[in-house]
Design goal:
The structure is a homodimer of 347-residue chains. Chain A has two domains: 117 residues, NAD(P)-binding Rossmann-like Domain (Rossmann fold, 3-Layer(aba) Sandwich), CATH 3.40.50.720; 152 residues, Dihydrodipicolinate Reductase, domain 2 (2-Layer Sandwich). Chain A contains nine helices and 17 strands. In chain A, helix 5 runs antiparallel to helix 9 and helix 7 crosses helix 9. The longest helix of chain A is centred in the last third of the chain and has 20 residues. The interface between A and B is large, with 81 and 81 residues.
Amino acid sequence: MPVKMGIIGYGGMAGWHHEHSAETPGLEVVAAYDIDPARIAKAQEKGLKGYDSLRQFLADDSFELVLVATPNDAHCRLVLDALDAGKHVVCEKPVTLTLRDIDRMIETAQKNDRIFTVHQNRRWDKDFRIARDVLASETLGNVYSIQSRLHGSGGAMHGWRGEKKHGGGMLFDWGVHFIDQAYTMCGWDAFTSVRCRTANVKTTEVDDYFHLQFDRKDGGEYVVEIGTFVLKELPRWMLLGDQGTAYINGFARSGGVITLDNAIEDEPVIVMTSAGPTRTFAPRPDGVKTERELPDPDCHWTDYYKNVIATIEGREELIVKPEQVRRVLATILAAFRSAKTQKQIKL
Amino acid sequence: MPVKMGIIGYGGMAGWHHEHSAETPGLEVVAAYDIDPARIAKAQEKGLKGYDSLRQFLADDSFELVLVATPNDAHCRLVLDALDAGKHVVCEKPVTLTLRDIDRMIETAQKNDRIFTVHQNRRWDKDFRIARDVLASETLGNVYSIQSRLHGSGGAMHGWRGEKKHGGGMLFDWGVHFIDQAYTMCGWDAFTSVRCRTANVKTTEVDDYFHLQFDRKDGGEYVVEIGTFVLKELPRWMLLGDQGTAYINGFARSGGVITLDNAIEDEPVIVMTSAGPTRTFAPRPDGVKTERELPDPDCHWTDYYKNVIATIEGREELIVKPEQVRRVLATILAAFRSAKTQKQIKL
C-alpha cells in the first residue's frame, strides 16, 4: 500500500512535488486544497480530489500525509491544523519565520505523535553530495575554508518571495538550503558564530544578496554567498585544504580535485611577476598540479520522500529532523541580526 | 640635481628598489648599509658606497633620502635614527607592528621636519587601478560587493616572513597592501567594522591565509581573501554592482565588464534546471550579456618615487601619508583581534 498524500497550496512548488512523487515508489498524491479556484481546477485536471475547504480536506481519511506548500507566512497555522487532524506533515522550506512558530509545530507533532519534517531536499543535491564526499575522502587534508556560492543573473526575487510579509528574500529562500547543507556537512554543533551582510540589489523589500561566514569549532571557516545578480559566476563550491583544492562549477558534476605532485617544502625561487618580486605567489612550473575527477555519488531528490515514507512505516529514522530545522531557522535569524547590527553573532 | 638615496638592508626588496630607481627620473641610489658583509659586497658590486656602520651611513651627507628595507621588526629603530639624522625616510611595508611605534615615527618626522612615508607601491598596481577606474566610471551602478582576492600555490611564507618575531604572516605581508588599496579605493573613513578569519595552512608560526570582510558606511561590503595554497585561482577582483559585474583575473589587464542588454524587469519564466524549478536562477538566453574590455589606465610603480621626490622638492603633496599608514596598521591589528576573538571589530 502506498503512502497517500494531500497537498495544501497547489502552486509552483506543489506541481514539482506532484511530479516527483510519481517517481517515488510508495508515494501517491491524491488530493489538494487551495484558496484559488483556478489551482483547484488544475489539481483536478491532474487527477486529484480538489478541495476549497481546509476542514473538509483535513477530514478526508484517504491520505495520512500532508504537504504544506504555501507562501512561508501561512505555514504555521496549516501545519498545526494538519497535525491536529492526525496527519503526518511535510512542510516546504523555510518552515516558518519565528522560533515561536517552529516550537509550536514541534510540540503539536509530539502531542499528536505524528511525523513532522521539512522539505530540505537539497541535502540530496548532486553538487552537495560531491562536496561532502570530497571532504570525507580526506584527499584535501584539513579543509580550512569551505565556500558555498550561487551566482545568477535573474535579478530580483519574484512573486511573494519578493515580499517581506510572506517571508521572502534570499536568506529565507535559498539560504535555508545552503545553511542546512552547511550543518549537514560539518555537524550540527560545528559552528560557533556567524557574520552576515545582506544587500537589496534589485529587490526593495527583501534581501536578494547575502554573504555569510561561519566560524567553525575546528578553527576553519564556512562561507555562503548567494546573489541573484552576479553576471560572472564563481564556482558553486570551493574546498580549500592544506593538501589540495576542490572546485565544483555548478549543480552538476563539473570541476576537479587538485593536488600537487612535488613536495611543497621545495623552496621556490624568487620570481619577478607582474605582482613584483615574489616567492609566495611565484607561478608553479607546468605539470606539478594534478587534477582528478570529482566523485560521482548516487543521489536523487526522491530519496527525501523515500525516507519520509520509511519513517511513517517505522522502517527508518527521520533524516530531516525538526530540531535541525529549528537550528537552521535560529541561524538565519542570527544572520539577519548580524547584518542589522554589524556584529558577529555567537551560535 | 637628482634626489640621492641610501638603502638600509640590501636584501631581496632592496635590489628591486635599486633596479626600479634606475627607471625613476630624478632618483639616484648611492649608498647601502647592511649587517651582512655579503650584502655590502653585493651593493658595492652594483656601484654603491657600502657601509657596515649605521652611524657612518647616516653621517654621509651625499644623500638626503633613506629607504628602510629590513625585516619588519627592525623598521622602527632604523626609521627613528634616520629621521633624527636629518634624512627623509621611505620605509618598506608593513611599517611596523604596533601603533606605539608608528606614532613615534610620525612624531619624530614632525619634530625633524622630514618627510616620512611607506612603500605602499601597490596603489599603482595595474589591476587595482583598473578596478578603481571601473568603480569610478559608474558603469556598474551601486557596487554592493567589492572582492579583492589573491590565490597562489606557493604554500608557506618564506624566510623571516614566516617568523612571528619579525612580523611575518600574510596579513602583514600582503594584507597591508590590499587593505591600503581598500581604503584608497573607498575612502579613509569608508569602513565601519571588520571581521577576519586567519589560518595556518602550511606555516606554523604565522597566518598564511586570511579572509576579511569590511562593512562599508554606504551599506556595501569589501572582501579581502589571500591564500598561499589555493590551487584553483579565483579572479583577483570581482566588483558586483546593481547594473553589472566586473572581474579582473590577475595582476594584468585581463577580464571584463559585464552588463545586461535587456531590462532586468522582464519577468523570467520558471525553468527546470539541475537546481530544480527556479526563476531566480534560470539561465539567461544567450546574447543578453554584453562583455566590454577593461579600461587601460596608465600607471607604474615608479610613480611612487616620483611623488616622494616631488614632495621633497616641494612640488607635490605626499600621496602615501603617515596617518593613512597608521590607519592601515590599526586595521590589521583589529583584523587579528577579530580572528582571535571571533568578533566583528568596530573601526
